[in-house]
Every structure is written in structure tokens, then in C-alpha cells.
Amino acid sequence: MIKQTKRMTHMYNKINQNKKFSIDKAINKLKELSTVKFIESIDIAVLLGIDSKKSEQNIRNNIILPHGTGKNIKIAVFAYGNKAIEAKEAGADLIGMEDLVIKIKNNEKKIDLVITIPEAMHLVSKLAPILGPRGIMPNPKLGTITENIKETIKKMKKGQINCRNDKNGIIHTNVGKINFDNYKIKENIEHIINTLKKHKPSKVKGNFIKKIYISSTMGVSIDITTSLIKI
To answer: CA-to-CA distance for 203 and 215, rounded, in angstroms?
Structure first.
């Protein structure tokens, strides 16, 4: 059994885990309880009323947050010729073909996202055992297999996130940094929930969004379901 640290014990003593908070109060509470020496990310977890075993009910969406994530995303692009030039102009961090495969296999550079032109998928597919478990394997549904390299990179750099549910029907994603103005965090959260509602699968009956929690990197989870369920 993992022993709870004094810092975590202090946080749990400062918050009622059974209480539901408004977004504003939840954000204030996360900031109040943050005592670490780095700028934490704020994440959201949304439990959906879907059957993840049915492909038509799974959620796969790209969402551009109004205020971005505050994260400097490291993007690797598989491209050559003019597409490679476009990738460089758009700010890609790594660009290549066979040489990029080697770099990723050797874990030479940290990357957060992989984008590829369709013609390079024969190379990228070799990296599935590495990229798949990390959730960054290029996928046409997520817009990361594309001919529109420049626009895709710009969107990702601006704050586009991929919302995809796990096997338990939960979406986990980043909504900003703890040093963001409160209204920016709030608007990012509301934008995600509204976008999810617009893309509710037609086969889903009953409550689509069941639970919503936010948390900071080293903090506790706070229930904000009630304040968002009707937006």
C-alpha cells in the first residue's frame, strides 16, 4: 500500500471530496492548494455514458481551446520535399523520413505529437508499438495523417487537443496551466464540454455526460459536474 504524503494529506484535509463545486470555486481551490515549485497543468476528466466496446459510440475529436493549453508542444513530422519545407515554416520540431524513424526508436528527442503525410505511413506504421501506447500514433480521424501539413501544425501549436475516450469511457485532457487567468481556464473547460455535447453519438441514450472532474498535476480531483451539466 502506498503511503500518503504529508502534502497530499494536507490537501485532502482542506477539501470535502464528496462536495460538488462550481467551476470558479474549483479553480480557486486548485490554485489555493498548489504548493509545488513548478507551474502545474490543469486537467479535466469527463466520464461519458457510452459503451466504449461499440465503435460508433467512441469519441474522437479535435478541439482548439480558446486560450490554448500553455504547453509548448514538440511536434515530429514525417514529410519530404515541399511538405517538409511547409513543416519547417510552420514550426515543426523534428522533420524527416527514415532518419526520423531512427530518432524516435532511439528516443533521441522528446515529442508530444506525430503528424505525417499519407505517403509516409509505411514508415510510421513501424513505430506503432512505440507511438500507440503513448496515444500519439497518427490517425486520419484526429487529423494527424494529412496533406495539409502547415495548417495542421499551426492548429496544434495554437492549442488543439485530441479528445478520445479510454476503454472506461473517460476522456482525459489538458485545459491549461494553473497560472492562467481563471476566466481562461473556465472558458477552455466550457468549450470542451460544449463541443462534446455537439458530438454526442446518436446511439447513446440517457445521460451522455455523467461526471466531470478537474485536477492539477500534483493536486486532488474536484467534482464540477453540476455546474457544467446544463451549459
So the answer is: 30
